[in-house]
Amino acid sequence: MARHLITSAIPYINGIKHLGNLVGSQLPADLFARYQRGRGHEVLFLCATDEHGTPAELAAAKAGQPVAEYCAEMHDVQAKIAQGFRLSFDHFGRSSSPQNQKLTQHFAGVLADRGLIREVSETQMYSPTDGRYLPDRYIEGTCPNCGFESARGDQCDNCTKQLDPVDLINPHSTISGATDLEMRETKHLYLRQSTMKDELEKWIDTREGWPVLTTSIAKKWLNDGDGLQDRGITRDLDWGVPVKKGDADWPGMEGKVFYVWFDAPIEYIACAQEWVDAGKGDDWSRWWRTDAGAEDVTYTQFMGKDNVPFHTLSFPATILGSGEPWKLVDYIKSFNYLNYEGGQFSTSRGRGVFMDQALEVLPSDYWRWWLLSHAPESSDAEFTWENFQASVNKDLSDVLGNFVSRVTKFCRSKFGEEVPAGGSYGPAEEALIAELTERLTAYQGHMDAIEVRKAAAELRAIWAAGNEYLQSAAPWAAFKEDPDRAAAIVRLSLNLIRLYAVLSAPFIPDTSDVLKEALKLDSLDWPEDLPEALNALAPGATFTVPENLFRKIADEEREDWQARFSGTRG
Ligand SMILES: Nc1ncnc2c1ncn2[C@@H]1O[C@H](COP(=O)(O)OP(=O)(O)OP(=O)(O)O)[C@@H](O)[C@H]1O
Ligand SMILES: [Zn+2]
C-alpha cells in the first residue's frame, strides 16, 4: 500500500469560488484522492481557506464586518459548498489557525538563524488620505511590464509578473482612489531566494515528469532577467500572522505581519496538524517529516498556473532553507485557465458561474463530469452552455444513463430483479472482456499520470463499449429464440454496471453510490482482475432498478441559464 499526500491550492477567502477555480485545483485533486483511495492506498487529502492579506481586509470592509468574523463565516460557506461538490478532504483547514501562526513564525525564525532573511529599509507607498501604507491590492496602477491598466501592487493579473507597489505607473489607492501618494521609509524582511537559486534549480531538475507548464514557469522565474529575486515576506497590515522570530519578538517589526504568500503554503503542513487536533488523525509527522516516516510518502500538489512560482520556488525555498527534514513535493500538477463564454471567469467582477449557483442548477456530478472531461490541461479551455448541454446529454444521459436503464429494465421485465442464471459467456463476451482489459490498463495509466482529460475519455470509451456490446448482442432478440443466451448477455451487462460503479466513482461519486445501492453492493473493490470482476455478480444476486441516472438538458433550459449567467453576480 502506497501513501499519498495530496493538497489543493488553498482557495482564497474573499468570496465563493467560480468553476475555473474549482477545475484548476480542488476538483482534480479530489479526483486523484478518490482514485488512490479506490486503489486501496492510504491518502491524506488536505485543503484549507487562504485567509490573510489585503483582499480579505477589503472584502470584510465591504461586508461591514470585522475581518476575523468575515473569514470565519466565509470558511463555513466554502466548506459547505465543497461538501456539495463531494470534495473529499480529510480536513478543510484555515490558514489563520493557531497551528499555522506558530509554524509560520517558526519557519521565519529558522530561516533568519540560517542567514536567509535580510532586513531592508525601504520606501513604501503611503496614502495620507487613507492614513496607511498601501501594500498589494490596496494599490493599483499600470503594469510596467505589459501596460495592463489595473495591475495590482503585488502581481499583474494580465502577464502574471510579480510586482512591488513602487513599480506601478500612475498608482492610486483602491480604498479611496487617492493619487496623492507618498513614499515613506519602513522596514521589511526579505527571503533571500536569490542565494538559493542554484539549489532550487538543482532540485527542480531532479523532479521527474513534471508537466511542461510547471517547469516552464519555474525556469522562467529562475532565469529570466536578473534571475530569481529576493522576495518581501512582510507587510504593514493588521490582519495576518504577526512577525516573530519563532517565539521571540522581532525588534523593529512590531505591528507588521507576514505576507500572505509566505504563510499560505505553510498551511499545507499546519492543516495536517489541525487534522490531528480535530481528532481525525493521530500523527501528522509521518506525512510531513522525513525523519518520522514521510520518506515513503508521494506528495502531489494541484493548482492553477498563477500559483506555480510560489509552489516551485518560494515554498521550496522556505522548506529547503530551513535545513529541517520536511517533506518536499514530488509532483506539481498545474492547470491552464478555464474561461467562460468568450471571456474570463472573474471573482472581483462576478463573471461566470460560481460554485453555489452551479449546485442550484444541477447536481454536482453533472458539473464534475463536464469540468474534469474538459480540464484546461494542455491549453486554456472554455466553458460554453452549448458544450455543457451536449456533453451531459451525450456522455452521461445517452451513454451511461441509457445503458444502466436498458439493462436493469430489460432484466426486470424478463427475469425479475435478480441476476439471471443460464447460458455462458461466448466469443462476443470474450472480445468485450479483452477490449475492456486493455482500456482499464489505459485508464489506470492516465489516472496514475494525472492526465485528467485522457482518463475521462477512456472512461467514456469504457461506458460506450458496454452500449455497443448491448446493441449488437441484442438480448431482446435473443430472448425469443434462446433465453439462456439472453440471460448470459444480461448477466454480463449487470456486471458491467458494477464495473462502472467502481471505475466512475472518482469522477461522479454520487452516481456511483446510486449504482452501488441499486446492485446492493457492500463495497466497491477495484477490479484488479477484470475477467473476475465481470463475474462478481453471481446468478441470484438481487438488485433494484435505479431512478433515471441523468436527465437531459433541454434547449429552453440551456437558454435560460445562458441568460441568467450572462451578467455579473450582484
Ligand atoms: N479561470 C481559472 N481556471 C483554472 N484555475 C483557476 C482559474 N482562476 C483561478 N484558478 C486557480 O484557482 C485556485 C484558487 O484560486 P484563488 O482562490 O486564489 O482565486 P484567484 O486565483 O484569486 O482567482 P480569481 O482572481 O478569479 O478569484 C488557484 O490554484 C488558481 O490558480
Ligand atoms: Zn502585466
TrEMBL record:
The keyword Glycosyltransferase does not apply. Its main location: cytoplasm. It is found in: Cytoplasm. Binds 1 zinc ion per subunit. Monomer. Is required not only for elongation of protein synthesis but also for the initiation of all mRNA translation through initiator tRNA(fMet) aminoacylation. This is Methionine--tRNA ligase. The gene is metG_1.
